[in-house]
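Field reference: sequence -> structure
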Amino acid sequence: MVAAATVFGILGICVALILFLSPIPTIRRVLRDRTSSSFSQLPFVMQIVESSYWSLWAIAVGERLEMLVNNIIGITFMATYVIIFSCYVPQEKKRTTTLHLLVSVILVASGFIILFAFEKETASLILSVAAVVLNIVKYASPLSVARMVIQTQSVEFLPLPLTTACLLCSIFWVRPPSPLA
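Structure field:
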């Protein structure tokens, strides 16, 4: 019989792939309208940073190929979205976009420094704690437009597919406790 943790792990990977594809409707709209309008790139940038930390953790721990591959796929998709998004960001948001990108580069570089500067066990602990914190921030990042949603009383710029995929991911990555022996 397959353990519940294994099933949740497989479902988690599948939902993570759906999460990586969920911005496609938003990106299609950005390309069609030739502007990122009031959409925020923050969820995409946070996914890059968070996936980078999980990838670095998988490297530090070893034998976590599925986690490494899954997150490299996520980084690739999100980097593509960020590039497209950045090409069409309105002038008044360019400074914020640049700041978000700069902070993300610094965070990812810090992760690499941690991986190579510390012993394997220490690096994996630091990277895993950082990844969990970044996970929480990433799941909250679609709410970066909450103020606009309240002000305009419209969810037009709240990315529903991304928000739903984040919710499903958080559900499936929670592993049920293993039975006591």
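Note: The chain has one domain: 4-172.
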